[in-house]
Amino acid sequence: MKPKVAFVCVHNSCRSQMAEALGKLFASDVFDSYSAGTETKPQINQDAVRIIRDLYKVDMNETQSSKLLTDIPEVDIVIKMGCNVVCPFLPAKHVEDWGLEDPTGKDDEEFKKIALTIEEKIKDLSNRINNKEIVL
């Protein structure tokens, strides 16, 4: 069975959504991707949606929505996107904090930088799971 990975931040509208989309795109053979937060937004950050569509041809508006921690199944791995105040807590066998800046309200370059960083980290996470470097 594939491990379940949850990408969490407070609002589940930007970074965690990008991570869910890229996890599904680049690592669905290794793990299942979910994202959630302690609060939701009526819609995903539309700048993030546009950047992910431009870079990866994935439309997050069609396949994803802002979710609460209670809306997703139990997970094996929790990835905190980088919360300045309080990161949501979810029980898991493995937890990491990727410490990513929130690009909300910033320019497209900032969004692209975060997207590419997330892509890199997703691929690295996938490799570490495959190589049994993460004990589940």
Automatic annotation (TrEMBL):
Keyword flag Membrane: no
Domain Phosphotyrosine protein phosphatase I, first and last residues per copy: 3-128
Keyword terms, alphabetized: Arsenical resistance
Gene Ontology biological process terms, A to Z: response to arsenic-containing substance
Keyword GTP-binding appears in the UniProt entry: no
SUPFAM superfamilies registered for this protein in UniProt: Phosphotyrosine protein phosphatases I
PANTHER family registered for this protein in UniProt: ARSENATE REDUCTASE
Name of the protein: Arsenate reductase
Source organism per UniProt: Clostridium polyendosporum
Gene that encodes the chain: arsC
